[in-house]
Structure prediction request, 146 residues.
Amino acid sequence: MTTIQRARSRRSKLRRVELLTSAERMDLELGAPPAFPSEAARREAWRTHRDAILDDYAAWPGTHGVRPDAFWAYDVADAALRSADESAADIDDQMAAIEDLDRRRLRYLTAHGLLSTGEKATLVVDPRRRDVLLAGFRGRNGSPAA
Prediction:
């Protein structure tokens, strides 16, 4: 694929995402505030725009190892990975719950081979995430996984 073909393909994907309002895109990415008239409409919007949104996440190093809220809601069967328990009254406990969810989600992405080479390279240099990421590449005895 030539550079021009890649640029055209990228523009085509971006045009599909542009059909979402900014509020709808924020809903799919962050989960709030609700922007769709129903859960079915939100699910359909995710199905339609999923690939383009995930391509955008893959393109920006700041979102490496992160997936939109709709990914966790519709693509992953494990309900425990959908949201953090933020019911604790103490802000430190709430932050700890969010960090724990982030680690569990990263373990899931690693275990299921859903991280790109670029994401792995970016995450390995992040000390908060490196240990979680590298643990996914090791077997039970600590040796590199085959």
Remarks:
- Residues 39-59 form the longest helix (21 residues).
- The helical segments are 3-18, 22-30, 39-59, 69-75, 91-111, 117-124, 127-135.
- The two ends are 32 Å apart (CA to CA).
